[in-house]
Structures are given as C-alpha cells and as structure tokens.
Design brief:
The complex is a heterodimer of chains A (about 575) and B (about 450). Chain A is about 35% helix and about 10% strand. With about 575 residues, chain A is α+β, with helices and mostly antiparallel strands. Chain B has a domain of about 210 residues: TIM Barrel (Alpha-Beta Barrel), CATH 3.20.20.
Chain lengths: ~575, ~450
C-alpha cells in the first residue's frame, strides 16, 4: 500500500473525483521537518542558532496534548485524539486514560491545576501552577513560572497532571499520568509530533516595527543580517560583488556598483529605521544560496537515477561514507599545509587564518555527513544487521561523469584548491554519489532518511561556495606557495616517523570510538561519540595536536589505511 | 451560513464501508460519501486491516476544498417554507400524521391571508438571494383552501420578481379536488407536485377513503381530477408518493397501477408511526418491505441498463445523491433552511410537527435563535447516540426527526441494506466505458 492513490484507487463519484483531483490528494506526512525548516537551515547569520523559539518545544511536553504557557497558567490548546485512539488500539494506554483524553477533547477550556513529576535538580515535587510564586533560589525553591517548571521536567520520567475545567466552579477535573515526551527521535531529528514551522511560529514578522533589532539580546530572529548583493545584469568577475551587504539597508538602489559592504565603518546609519520598516519591508529581497535574488530563480536540474535494489543502495551508502572520509582526509592534509599564524603577518595572516578556519569547518561537516550516512544505513538495515561504514574509499569521483580518481593527500596548492571546488560542485562528483541515493530513497523509503540525505547535499553546496571564497582570499598568493604554505618537503613522512605513528594511533582510536558509538546508536552510543569528538579537536592528546606536530616537522599530514578489518578500504560499487 | 456549534463525532466510528458489486470491489469513505473502485489487492489489504489502511482512509476522509466540516451545526438563511393553508381534508386516511390537518386540535382553523402574507414576507426578507426559495403548501388538503393558495402564489411570484429572487413552489395533495383553475396555476409556475396515491383502486380506496358518513373510495375521483394535469403538466413536475402499511407489501403491483395512471415516477414511504389503525410497520415487517422494494428496484435497474429512465423515485433520487456525493449531518432542512408555518403563524421545524412545542422555533415576527441553535445542535447526527457510530450516518443522518422515536434495529437495518443496494446499483450502472468523468457518471444516472 505504498502509493495506492496513484495506481489502485479509481474515483467513482463526484466527491471521490474531487479528492483525487487535488494536487496532493493523499498528502504525505513528512516525518520530522523538511530540510528547509530544520534549524541548520536557519538564515540568520549574525546570531545563528536563534531561528526558532525553543519555548515551543514545551508545548508538547505531555503526550497527545498541546499546551499554551502564558505567564501564569498551562492551558490546553488541543488533544491529538487520533493519536490517543491509536494508542488505545495498540494497548499503549488504558480505557480510563482514553476517557480522560476524550473528556478534555470534548469541550471547554482546561488548565493544569497541579503537576507532579521529577523537576531536574529540584527533585520530585507537586506544584500548584496558580501558586508558582515561591522563591526560585535557596532551600525549598520552586520554578518561577509554569514554563520553567515544565522545562525542568526530566525526559522519560512520569508526570501527573490534574487538569481543571474553567471556570473552577464547574468542578470538573481530569487526571492523566504519562512520561514526559521526547522532543527528539532516535536519529536526532525533531520528533514527528512537531509540525513544520511549529518551532518558529512565535518569531517576529518582517512588518513589525522592531524587526531589525530581533537578535540574541532581544528576541529570536529568523532573518539574515547580511547577504550577498543582487548581481548586476551584466556578468561580472569583480570580487566586490562577493562581499556581504546589510540586508536591511536603506539605500535599495541597484546599480553597476555593489552596495556598501556590511563591514563599512561609517557613522551614517545604513539600515532602515524603525518607522521605515513598517512601510518598506516589502522591498527586502529574497535570499537564496546566500545571495539576494531580484529576478526569476532557476533551480538546478536533479539528475539522480534510482538504484536497482536495496542491496545496491546499501553498497552506494557505504561507498558514500568512504568518500566523506577520503575527502575529509584530503582537506585535513591541505589545511595542515598552511603556515601557522606565528609565521605570518598583516593581511596574509588574516587571509590564511580564514582559509584554515573554513577548511576545518568543512572537514567537521564531512564528519557530520559520515554520521548522517551511517544513520541512514542503520535505519535501512536495522540493528544488529547494520555494521558501521568507516572504510575510506579507494577511489573518489572525478570531474567527468563516471571518472574515478585516486585519493591524493596534498598541500593546498592552486591546483588542489581547484580540485576541491570541483569535488564539492553541485551535481558533480560527490554530489552525484548522493543524487542516485536520493532518487532511490524517494521511492518510498522513510522521510527522515530522505531529509538526512538532502541535508548532506545542501551542505555540499555550502562547501563548494566556501572553497570558492577561499580561492578568492588566497588569490594574491596562490602563484607563490612559499608565502602561505609551510616550509619543508610537504610530502608524506618517511617510514617510522614518530609523529606520523602517533597520529595514526590517534586516528585508529577515533575510528574505534566511532565504531562503538555508531554500532550502539542513540542514546546508548552518546558517550562514545562525545569522546570521538573530543579525540578530533581537543587541545591535548587529539588528532588535532598530533597532526599539528607532523606538520610542524614540514611533512604532509596523511592517514594510513588501518589493518583492522572493520575499517577496510571501500572500492566504488 | 452561521456556525452555531461544533458537535464532535465519535472518534471510533467507522470511517469507511466496504462493498462489492458485479463491477468489482468498492470503498465508501463515510465522510463526504466518496466512492472508489479498488484493485483486488488493495481490497484484500483493506479487509485484512493493512498497516496503512487507517492512515489512507483518514486522509481520503479529509475535506476537499469547498467541502464543509461535518462537525459543524450550521444555521443557514431560511430558503423554504411550507404553509399549512388548510386544517381539514376531504379524505380520511387512518395513518394521517396531521389528523386530516387539525393536528389533534393544534390547528383548528385554516390559515388566513394576513398570516400567509406575513410568512411569505418574512421568507423573502431573510432569504439568501444567491439560492432559490421555495414556498410549499400543505395541510390538510391544500386545495381545500384554494383561494388562499392562489393568492399566495401570485403574491410570492410578484414580490420575488421585485426583489430579484428565484421562487419555486411545491404542494402535496391528494389530488381529488383539483379543478381547471388549479391545474392552470400548477402549469404556469415551477411547481413540484406530490400526489399522494397508495396504489390501484383496491388499495387506494381501502387506505385513503373519502370522509363522510358513507364509506366511499377516492381512486376514481383522483384519476379523473389528475388526468388532465398528467397529460399536460406545463412547468410542473409531478410525482406520486405511496404510503406503505403493513397490510400490503405487493409493491410491484401498486407501482404498476400508479404508473398506469400516467405518472412518470412514483416512490414509496413506509408507515412508521401508528395513529391507532395498527397498520404501521413492526419489527418483523421490515425484511418483507425491503424485499418488495428491491423487487421493484431490480425491474427499474434492468430498464436503466437498456437506456430507459428509472421511475422509482426512491432509487432515482438515491443514485443522483450518490453521484454528487450527498453527505450531511442532517436528514433534511428542518430548522435549518426549511420551516413549516402553522395556520396561527408559528414557525415549526417541520410540517409533521405542527403544534409540537419541542419543534416550535419562532413565528412570522422572527426566529428564536436560542431555540433554533439548540434544535440544530441537538439534532446533529453526532448527537444521536444510536447514529454516531453508523457507517450510514451522513446519508441517513438519523432520518426523520419526528419519527426518530420509532427507530429500531430492524428499521435501521433496512436503511443500511437499502443504501448498500443503491451503492451496488450505482457502481453497476455507472460501470460503462465512457463513464470517466463526473459528468459521465451523472449522465448514466437517470
């Protein structure tokens, strides 16, 4: 019954025809949120991470109930009665609980009178919501308000609510007990109970007076502060068009010269003033792929083709994981070939430092992709059939379709940079590996897996643009490598090199931790994954410190293929 | 249209009904009465309770654009009234719900012109001009007060034209008093004329005798009076309606006898409420009645398969309703778009309830909003304990409010059986190769 609406339901009368004539007659519920509503898709850039109102999570702290929490009460908004009935059918709740939910569903305004549960550090308490004015510090302290109280409830512990129908004179009460709801699923995605847009529903809107100031010190925001300016009609190579400008600038003219960049130190206010935004918010441009768009936007064609079988899909995913590891290693080799800050000065130091930081960010991104691909594999195969994919690809996709090239650790030369840009370019190379995976998943696999792969692809686009910027920053030096690359051979260390051996030991330890963490899944594997993260980037006793020591000797940072069969290199399928 | 309340349905109520016909496997989605054909594979999966079934059904049960929520109790503008113009009748049928127009003393006098005019004024003033309005005539025998009826038609027609309203008329009559001027009136206006006739001479004379000291039948007089109208109905639409008592279930014979008079269609209504004659259907009568009705219907289906019109109103109306997807939490417009005005000017939810305080919702001066809202909320099918979990809840909708007290397992079983019969007939009749569109489907349903 995967797609009955397409093939097996034939309308017989007018209302049936009306239903099937709808654009999406049997709408699919997307598990979690689509890629465009995920927090990591937020568009705020000066205060990233504030694109949602986290208080909205608590609206669903109690199974099947949606609650509002103004200052002094916890008020019932809605009951997911379909969910309640399904839970009763599945034997997850008893008849008395069903009756309780039904009473709440029927009519009237209901508020929480008392709430009993485990309130984190405050321990087990019974709180009368209307009376929450006890001191919030010192002995016997209580949460200062209803939302804080709910926020303190420990996930997975029993919560008992006594709800009272308003007005209190009705005398009607319902008592329900359930575990505090989990806000995230096993794969780290928002739980399916949250509807797309629900976490952002209380954010400011562009036409509000103080929209401009919505930021971390005031209110969560969901707007970019800076964006790349709209491109002029005539194509241009001038890098000035790649400098971010204030998105809410007062001067909205578009000419041959780009607007003044956001970094301009000019006492004249460049942004729209409060009263102006009420009238001119419509003139704010849409931002796609970081750039303001004032003309029609053409989406790139999606070229993926479904793979023949689930076996082929699994093989392609294992290879994709290997490609992530392989390119991550190439990026780290290149990153550690850059001169350290102490050996640089002035603008060169700033440019190289920026390149270093951005490559590191990309390498961390590849590790996130590695985890996402493994999550999809675990979802497809189930545990214990799933085995973590941590083998490095023997070959990675090249520039031309079907071409495969060797993994090549090398310093960040002009050619290497060009190659990296090509690797991350949309619809090419690595992106092409995922296109076929996505096309296959689109044929009825779980939505959370589809969204995971779409996120990986979307971030590939970000990596591509970042390498373009790095090329621009390093442009003045690319023809003179000694200006920005470390001195030394910048070749793989000789056999027996001690620093290199230490690096390999750290690398193996990391793989081992990842294997354990992936294998266990969440939340059991959380400790191993945290340790793995630390093993990569800590200031002491980490891959970062070991690699730095190799580079300091003038050698290239390279990673040997481990002998452990769990990490056996993966050939292309 | 004003929403006065939301009456939540029963969450565990069936959302679909499975049935099969000679054309294959079918699925009725209960809300909005959507009918689908199923592949044998999907039918098996649904019957076996496949994992996606409930989710699929729930999605198909969501309203499409333009479809109203079935939880809503709504109070539309009144568009139709019936005027109980007469309080007497020249026949004396033992089963008459109106006690020959007197309603057990509740309507002792016939309606007067000022009362009728005030009622028409109130209708015209409140109606939604985008939809047609209907003025109906009942009683008693309406033509017993023909002067008032003629006056009302002329007045309503003229005033509606002045106000830009599309007015139509209806009358339910025993037909025996029709004169030339009456027939001219019916022909000249858009009248839906329902003639009460129970069958051929034997049945008609037994069940519908003339009033008076000497027992006499009404068949001959009826035949004589209606034949000119049947021969030339003009703008009027004529249908025969026969009451079925427990004394005679030979519907095939009665159907033939009625059509022999020249009626284009006839329908049957079983007697549910006994008025002392002991002739209402009882618990064990319903299956015999159902069999008799099916026998008539099968003959009409066979005719339809040869391209002829269906003459059994019960079947023809059901097929049209299925094609358009009739789906409502109310069985009729009573208290919503329809009211019946008693001779004293009081407005009741329905013409069968004249004099019943529970159904009194206002008068010519205006409607009692509170009483009307309470009526509409209380009569919503979701508020009927026996109906809210039935798969036929948006088709039967609890049936006649006034007869609700007679509802029994056997009579409900008859309604479900009849609906399933009609759904099956619908799928078999509309299973023609050209039936690919909404229009195509309707075209096959006479």
């Amino acid at each position: 019954m995967s797609k009955p609406e397409d093939t097996k339901l034939i309308a017989r009368n007018a209302p049936a025809l009306r239903k099937l004539a709808e654009k999406n007659p049997v709408p699919r519920l997307v598990a979690g949120n689509s890629v465009s509503t995920r927090l990591e898709s937020g568009i705020g850039n000066c205060f990233p991470g504030l694109e949602c109102d986290l208080r909205n999570l608590e609206r669903r702290f109690f199974p099947f109930l949606e609650m509002d929490m103004p200052d002094t009460e916890i008020a019932l908004v809605a009951v997911d009665i379909d969910g309640v009935v399904a839970a009763r059918k599945a034997g997850e709740i008893d008849q008395a609980t069903l009756d309780g939910y039904m009473t709440l569903h029927t009519a009237g305004k209901w508020v929480v009178e008392t709430m009993t549960g485990m309130f984190g550090p405050l321990g087990r308490l019974t709180l009368t919501i209307a009376d929450l004015d006890a001191p919030s510090s010192g002995a016997g302290r209580q949460p200062p308000d209803p939302w804080t109280a709910v926020r303190l409830l420990t996930e997975g512990t029993d919560v008992r609510l006594v709800l009272q129908r308003k007005p209190a004179s009705s005398g009607q009460k319902v008592t329900l007990t359930a575990k505090r709801a989990r806000y995230l699923g096993d794969d780290g995605a928002l739980a399916a109970m949250f509807l797309p847009g629900e976490l952002t529903q209380s954010l400011c809107s562009p036409w509000t007076h103080d929209f401009r100031d919505c930021a971390c010190y005031y209110w969560a925001s969901n707007h970019p502060d800076i964006a790349l300016p709209p491109l002029p009609e005539k194509p241009t190579d001038d890098p000035k068009w790649n400098l971010a400008v204030p998105w809410e600038r007062r001067d909205r003219t578009i000419g041959d010269k780009p607007p003044a960049p956001a970094t301009l130190r000019d006492p004249t206010p460049v942004e729209l003033r409060y009263f102006e935004i009420n009238h001119r918010w419509q003139s704010l441009n849409f931002v796609l792929e970081r750039r303001e768009q004032i003309g029609p936007y053409q989406q790139q064609e999606f070229a993926g083709k479904p793979l023949a079988s689930k076996g082929a899909l699994v093989a392609q995913l294992r290879y994709a994981a290997g490609v992530e590891l392989a390119v991550m290693q190439e990026y780290l080799s290149a990153m550690y070939s850059l001169k350290s800050e102490e050996d640089l000065s002035g603008a060169t130091r700033d440019d190289v430092r920026a390149a270093h930081a951005e490559i590191k960010r990309i390498a961390i991104g590849e590790m996130r992709h590695l985890r996402a691909v493994n999550n999809v594999l675990a979802s497809l195969l189930g545990r214990p059939a799933y085995k973590p994919a941590l083998g490095v690809a023997t070959k990675i996709p090249g520039a031309r379709p079907g071409q495969l090239v060797d993994v090549e650790p090398r310093p960040l030369t002009k050619d290497a940079l060009k190659n990296f840009i090509m690797i991350e370019a949309p619809s090419k190379s690595v992106d092409g590996v995922y296109a076929n995976i996505l096309a296959t998943l689109n044929q009825g696999y779980p939505d959370s897996d589809i969204q995971a792969i779409r996120t990986v692809m979307a971030e590939g686009e970000d990596h591509y643009r970042t390498f373009l910027f790095i090329q621009e920053w390093l442009k003045p030096y690319l023809d003179e490598p000694r200006k920005y690359l470390r001195a030394g051979s910048l070749e793989a260390p000789p056999a027996g090199n001690q620093e290199h051996q230490e690096l390999q030991a750290q690398y193996l330890k990391l793989l081992d931790l990842l294997y354990t963490g992936y294998n266990l899944g969440m939340p059991e594997g959380a400790a191993s994954l945290n340790e793995a993260r630390n093993a990569m980037i800590e200031d002491q006793d980490s891959i970062a410190t070991a690699a730095e020591r190799v580079a300091a000797k003038g050698y290239l940072v390279v990673f040997d293929a481990p002998a452990d069969p769990r990490f056996k290199p993966v050939p292309p399928p | 249209m004003q929403r006065v309340a939301t009456v939540a349905g029963e969450p565990t109520a069936p959302m679909f009904h499975r049935f099969r016909s000679a054309a294959g496997e079918h699925l009725l989605i209960v809300p909005y009465s959507r009918v689908f054909d199923l592949s044998p594979e999907l039918a098996r999966s649904i019957d076996g309770g496949g994992s996606d079934r409930d989710a699929l059904v729930a999605r198909l049960a969501q309203p499409s654009p333009g479809e109203v929520a079935l939880d809503d109790a709504v109070a539309p503008a009144p568009q139709s009234i019936s005027l109980n113009v007469s309080s007497s009748c020249n026949l004396s049928c033992s089963y008459c719900y109106a006690a020959r127009g007197g309603f057990e003393g509740a309507q002792a006098e016939p309606m007067r012109w000022p009362t009728a005019r005030a009622a028409i004024d109130a209708l015209l003033a409140r109606a939604d001009p985008a939809a047609p309005i209907t003025v109906g005539f009942l009683g008693g025998e309406p033509f017993a007060n023909r002067a008032l009826m003629h006056a009302c038609v002329h007045y309503a027609q003229q005033d509606a034209v002045r106000r830009g309203l599309d007015v139509r008329f209806s009358v339910t009559t025993n037909g025996t008093l029709l004169r030339g001027d009456d027939i001219a009136l019916l022909r000249a206006h858009r009248f839906a004329v329902t003639i009460s006739i129970d069958g051929g001479a034997a049945v008609q004379d037994r069940q519908r005798p003339r009033a008076g000291k000497t027992a006499a039948g009404s068949f001959d007089r009826l035949k004589r009076a209606v034949s000119p109208l049947l021969a030339d109905p003009g703008m009027a639409q004529i249908a025969a309606r026969a009451t079925v008592t427990r004394n005679d279930f030979d519907l095939t014979r009665r159907f033939a006898d009625i059509l022999a008079l020249g009626f284009a269609e006839a329908g049957f209504a079983p007697l549910r409420m006994d008025k002392g004659g002991g002739d209402a259907l009882r618990e064990d009568d319903w299956s015999a009645y159902f069999d008799a009705l099916k026998e008539v219907a099968r003959g009409e289906i066979a005719r339809a398969q040869c391209g002829a019109a269906i003459r059994l109103s019960n079947l023809a109306i059901a097929l049209r309703q299925i094609a358009r997807g009739a789906s409502s939490p109310y069985p009729c417009g009573a208290g919503g778009g329809y009211f019946s005005v008693a001779a004293d000017g009081r407005w009741y939810a329905c013409h069968r309830t004249i004099g019943d305080r529970d159904f009194a919702l206002g008068d010519n001066g205006g409607l009692d909003g509170e009483r009307r809202h309470a009526f509409l909320t209380g009569r919503h099918v979701h508020a009927q304990a026996a109906c809210r979990t039935c798969w036929a809840r948006y088709l039967c909708s609890g049936a006649c409010h006034q007869e609700a007290t007679t509802r029994a397992e056997s009579s409900c079983g008859f309604i479900r059986g009849w609906l399933e019969f009609c759904f099956t007939a619908y799928c078999e009749l509309s299973a023609r190769p050209h039936a690919t569109s909404h229009e195509g489907l309707e075209a096959t349903v006479p």
